[in-house]
Amino acid sequence: MSSSSSEKGLRLLSLDSGGVRGLSMLLILKEIMHRVQDRERAPHPLKPCQYFDLIGGVGTGGLIALLLGRCGLTVDECIKIYVDLGTTVFQDVVKWGTEERLKVTNLEKEWKKIMKDILKDENARMMDHGDGDPPHCDTFVCAMSLHNLSPASPRMFYTYAAPKFPSTNCTIWEAARATIAEPTFAESIEIDVAAPLKEGYVGSSTGNSNPIHQVLEQSALLHPFRDVGCVISIGAGKAGPISLPPPRTILGTIFTRMIRPAYTLGTNLLHEMATDTDRAAEEISKRFGSAAGPYFRLTVEHGLQNIKLNEWEKLPDVTTHTQQYLRLAEADHKVHLAAQHLFRAPRLLSSLAACGLIQVKSRLSQLNLKSCPLPSKIFTGRHDILQRMTSFFDPISNKMRRVFVIHGVGGSGKTQTAYKFVDERKSWFSAILLIDAANQETCEADWMRIAQATQTETTPQAAVEWMSREEDNWMIIFNNADDPKFNLRPYIPDCIHGNIIITTRNPELKIYASSKDGECHLPMLSTSDALELFWKASHRPMSDQNVALELLERLDNHSLAIVQAGACIYTLNFSTQDYLQLYMESQQRQNELLSENPSSQQYDDYEYAVYPTFDISYTQLPAVATTLLQIFAFFHHNHISVSIFQRACQNMSSLDPSTDEEAIEVAAVVVFFCRFSSTNNLETEWSFDLLAFKKALRALTSYSLITYDQANEDYSLHTLVHKWAHLKIDDIHAKQSLAQYILGLSIEDTSNGWITEQLSLLPHLQHVLLDSFPSDLGLARKIGQVFLNTGMYHSSLEVQTEVVERGKIQYGEDHPFTLLSMSSCASSLAALGRHAEAVELRRRVWENQQEVVGEDYPSTLTSLSLLASSIFDLGRHAEAEKIQRRVFEKQPQIIGENHPHTLNNMSNLALSLSALGRHAEAAEIQRRVWEKDQEILGENHPETLTGMSHLAFSLSALGRDAEAEPMSRRLWETRKEILGENHPETITSMANFASCLWTLKRYEEAEEIQRKAWEKLKDILGEDHPHTLRVISNVAACLLSLERHTEAEEMSRTVWEKQKEILGEAHRDSLLSLNNLGSSLLALGKHAEAEEMLRKVLEKMQETMGENHPVTLKIMGNLATCISISGRTEEAAEMQRRVLEKQQEILGENHPETLSTMSNLGASLLALGRRNEAQAMLSVVWRRNREMLGPDHPVTRRSTANFFWSIFPEDETFAF
């Protein structure tokens, strides 16, 4: 039979109060136990006390709890007693004023009889368990003291010694009387507290009719270190619906119609009016969340709410409604899951989490982060330290942030001890995060992964600050914090919550410990633990103990050395004596090498002991495994995946060496991959033999030189092994070159999930470039492109610049590769906002290609198109459009109309047309390009997404925001999914979406999103990057629309000054910011200054973009508004009429900008006393806005007010 066990999850039962409806709870429990019985194949009904670890109840639920838990009855036996009590005792009532009250003397008499029959003692006590008693489990019932009737402070009567607030060891019948003694139903009872003192008690059903909170709290107090597997809470029927009375008068009908919408929406009011039973159930349901367990709430939904608690004659009705409930599909499924969890008792979450002391779920637990590795299966010893850590991190006794520092020599088991602790106590923590603290680069890389997973933060430091705000019981392990030069403090969240473990070889880091109990020196294993670990690792029977002890003494009982020795003995089937002899010989060779050249290596004492074990294992490896280990030495030591090598092998045919040096290196790559492929010819397609590769890995894992992380499906090396592996490299240049080729070949940008693959390669690419630049410049250019794709623009520029310089030397300045590299370098410059430099470089590329291969050669045309894009970035839109149209006329004939380069140029041409105000023409081209890109490249290809972005911009400019808004949202979400939340292109899409919201007059939403985009771009690209400045200008525009004019003026002035300096005074972005500044000054009443600025903007826009550009016309309209406010209404109206005529011609009569100008002109005409003209114009604006935007849109409401003001000018309610 399945019984309670510390290896299983806790099983808890909570029983509500319910009077006669308590029978329903028993019938539901009977069905659950019947299904468990079926699983057990038991011939007789099972006793709940043998399955539940704790049962708690209140009122009639308390009576049931005592019968099931303390008295050890089956459910059927309990039902018989319950029905007998209902038909005899509970129907025997007396009149008490207008109320009926229970004859408590009869209840006491009957309960004593029951105790006599079951326990042989009518005065059997709650905590006194005799040898002849039936099986039982921990049980409690709830009541309230007459001196404190607060439902928040129920009194408990336990059958066990409670860890907190112990109760008197009263008789069972007294506990039953106390929990049933409702003030309106039964008299209170006095119970001895401490002779001669007595205390009065009543039932706690009023205000505490669902004891689930007490059940979970008691489980945590009794079993703080156990997990919960099943929580079953059974109710006595849902509360009845709350409804408004039907209206009986006209006034009542009006009142009902007025109040019913608010009433329907008033969820808080309904919540307060619901019974405390449902309220408690709802709270716990929200805490656990999942419908699949471990919490199951079962209660009849309909039928019982009309049965009063003391209508015992309606027991048959209770039975009928309960059986109907159990036949419902939803209830049946819930009962099935509850029975399954009760039978299996899985360990699902900590009892502390279940009772709410730590969070069951948190945002952190939902992040897509790599898992913390599991401890070694042969972990041994460290019981004293694990116990210290358990007490130190105990969530009940410790509420503040705790930092525990484990320091000791390398390979002593510090990391494994940390892993073992968090694995044993994982249910305590809302999330467990692992940070590689070996140096600043690895630490920041792991924090950056967390930043990307949060989808809100953009830098490592921002992620640290984010974590400090997450008030969860998280755990962060800072692993291998060994470098004394690395300052760890900036990477530790500054907060008063959370948990931290630091593993280090540096004892000075114990200053981070949060108390004197928060640090420990991890010594070498004790002799007994070392011996046990050795037997586990070697899989040897405990023989040759004296030889083993001698070997362990030479190994200094060093954990990593013992594991290495044991793995070698097991793999090679050595005797301990044989291995001891090999170890002594290896150490002798090491001594000889050191004596020959004392300065060649500097070993720590523990390295002196452990390195010979590595050497012994190394000599036994097959050649392919030693090569693989040497390659790993140039990778980052963590997260080495098989897919890297698989992709590299499958891309071998792309290799094309161009120099003798490259040919030699490529030959080495061919030799390496021939071991894992049947192909040896670069001109044919290569396949990858996964089994052969894993066989080589198995050789390394069998000697414990690398470890496999099953949770993350990748491999890693201990930092000592990683360091030692460098010593075994026979040809450093050759092996580093091989590692560079493997990583370079694994780079793909056409497969699904390519950006995720490139992000996972980053730590390895950074590591492999530390000491040597690839001789294959094509390979180096690909690495630089990865840095560009993943938003690491500075690293990309550094690599691409080096490629260009080396390309000039190797191939010459006019060689196609050199020119291609210069173009890549220009892309990095453009990404950094250095557009003038990008234009200069791209012009040189285009001119050289024009001279060498001709102006109509495909690559020449592509370079010309890229040059036009950089010219566009400088704000020279007309010039860019002319060049793009010139390319557009030639590319379709030369490379085809569906070639990606043709489509890319068409997309850029459309963007230039939009910038020039030719939005309809632009939208038509963009839609064609987008549809072609979807067909040829796929929906999620970067070029397709760029085309979607441009189309959305054109649609918005045409006033078709209903189409543009969902497209912009989809683009943002898609880029977020593919590129990550913090990629610059994702953030740009985010800002563009916010601009769409601004156009739709959703100013508050737009401002919030623009600010987030600003913060992200500031962290990634810098405060002065053109993209960042453009978003700041957008924020200022939102503030202006929100009438926060002072903030808008200050922000617009700041951004304009920077744009004027960086982009130039005539750049479109600078002029738009100046326009925002002028509009802010106008709103602040600084009319003269505003007019001066707006005239300046208008002149520049007319000069650079033309008099008829939509933006020029908008600025002219702003200037007209300024003139009107200054009192020159006639002049303003004339200017507004000119603007309106142009906008009607260019944008169309229904464009939002056209209608806005028409509205302003109407106001001017009204001010001039030309009411009929004004009314006619404002009427048109009102009708068109109503048709296009709907009657409830803010713009429509404003135009409605304007129109009615033209009719009733004396009514200030409608004033402009």
UniProtKB/TrEMBL annotation:
<dbReference type="Pfam" id="PF01734">
    <property type="entry name" value="Patatin"/>
</dbReference>
<dbReference type="Pfam" id="PF13424">
    <property type="entry name" value="TPR_12"/>
</dbReference>
<dbReference type="InterPro" id="IPR016035">
    <property type="entry name" value="Acyl_Trfase/lysoPLipase"/>
</dbReference>
<keyword id="KW-0443">Lipid metabolism</keyword>
<dbReference type="InterPro" id="IPR002641">
    <property type="entry name" value="PNPLA_dom"/>
</dbReference>
<protein>
    <recommendedName>
        <fullName>PNPLA domain-containing protein</fullName>
    </recommendedName>
</protein>
<dbReference type="GO" id="GO:0046486">
    <property type="term" value="P:glycerolipid metabolic process"/>
</dbReference>
<dbReference type="InterPro" id="IPR027417">
    <property type="entry name" value="P-loop_NTPase"/>
</dbReference>
<dbReference type="InterPro" id="IPR011990">
    <property type="entry name" value="TPR-like_helical_dom_sf"/>
</dbReference>
<dbReference type="Pfam" id="PF13374">
    <property type="entry name" value="TPR_10"/>
</dbReference>
<dbReference type="InterPro" id="IPR053137">
    <property type="entry name" value="NLR-like"/>
</dbReference>
<feature type="domain" description="PNPLA">
    <location>
        <begin position="13"/>
        <end position="216"/>
    </location>
</feature>
